[in-house]
Amino acid sequence: MSSSREIVLKTLNFENPGRVAHSFAESDFINCGAAPKKSRNTDWEKVDELKWIRYDAWGNMWSRIDPTSCGEVEKGVIEDLDKLDEYEFPDFESDSVYDGVREKIRENPGKFIIGGVPGMVFNIARKMRRLDQYLVDILLEPEKISMLNDRVESITRTIVRKHAEAGVDAVFFTEDWGTQTQTLISPELWRKEFFPRFKRVCGLAHELGIKTFMHSCGQIEAIVPGLIEAGIDCLQFDQPELHGLDVLASHQENAKITFWSPVDIQTTLQTKDEAKIRATVREMLDKLWKGRGGYIAGFYGDNASIGLEPEWQEIASDEFTRYGVKENFPG
């Protein structure tokens, strides 16, 4: 019997894994990440009847008004781009920062180990300025923003290298690039400022022998070809229907790109219709997996935030397990 690690690698390489890889129940994956020293308490603190705040490892202040929400940055740590040189980045170079990564690897032989990276430049830098200000900066202060992005890219490369040295199988970047209808910036600007950074970081990961995974919320179809060209091996979407299953499948005709997703968390799961959920699972496997790889069955880890009882995702997981075996895909 193949190990989880073997199943995932065969999935990513389109080498007929035997069953669909998955991230629910007995997950094929173990997630881990760097633990830089924190300058202050990063737990949520309720400051009044309607507001919680916390600080992240970079020094950004987050807030939320709903205890089920992940929140958003209210105050970025770099309020003046001219003072970038005064900012002391978290220490991601020390070996001790990755002790937890090595421990997870030791404790989970046979699993596919993913090292978490805070972002592929954008997701880190935009928080340091706050998203709305960062998007303004890209247009009005492009040289200064490129300097910030350069610094963050250097940190990102360090995190990738240290994870590879620790022994992970892949690194996972969280990069929310889309609204429900389009990318946050024009595809042309993305190509100019960010594509080269993706290509350099993905190239480093591949040189070190590890795979690259990336999550994004929203409709980012306009930059999917660029992400594939840059070297992303697996794209994780929680709303595959924003793109369309046929559109996602079309990308696999020209490249070995793997998609990782649950049944769409904002459409299909919300119907609470068992027959529809099961039918959608089969359609996803028919179009994206086909028994040859290229698809990972996902599970959204926070049912409360999407307003669902666990049973609806459990139904999807059951169908992924039943139908996602090579015997059902003899071709």
Task: Tell me what the structure shows.
With 331 residues, the chain is of the alpha/beta class. It has twelve helices and twelve strands. An eight-stranded parallel sheet has the order 1-12-11-10-9-8-7-2. It has a four-stranded antiparallel sheet with strand order 3-4-5-6. Helix 3 packs across helix 4, helix 5 packs parallel to helix 7 and helix 11 packs across helix 12. The longest helix has 25 residues, at 142-166. The protein is globular. The chain starts with a helix and ends in an 8-residue tail after the last helix.
Topology of this protein?
Elements: H1 4-12, E1 21-22, E2 29-33, E3 45-48, E4 51-55, E5 61-64, E6 72-75, H2 99-107, E7 112-117, H3 122-129, H4 131-140, H5 142-166, E8 170-174, H6 187-193, H7 195-207, E9 211-215, H8 224-230, E10 234-236, H9 240-243, H10 245-251, E11 258-261, H11 274-289, E12 295-297, H12 310-323
Parallel strand pairs: 1-12, 2-7, 7-8, 8-9, 9-10, 10-11, 11-12
Antiparallel strand pairs: 3-4, 4-5, 5-6
Radius of gyration: 20 Å
Low-confidence stretches: none
Count of helix runs: 12
What kind of assembly state do the chains in view correspond to?
single chain
Widest sheet, order of strands:
1-12-11-10-9-8-7-2
Strand content: 15-25%
The number of E-state strands comes to 12
Q: List the secondary-structure elements in sequence, H or E.
A: HEEEEEEHEHHHEHHEHEHHEHEH
Structural class: alpha/beta
Distance between the termini: 21 Å
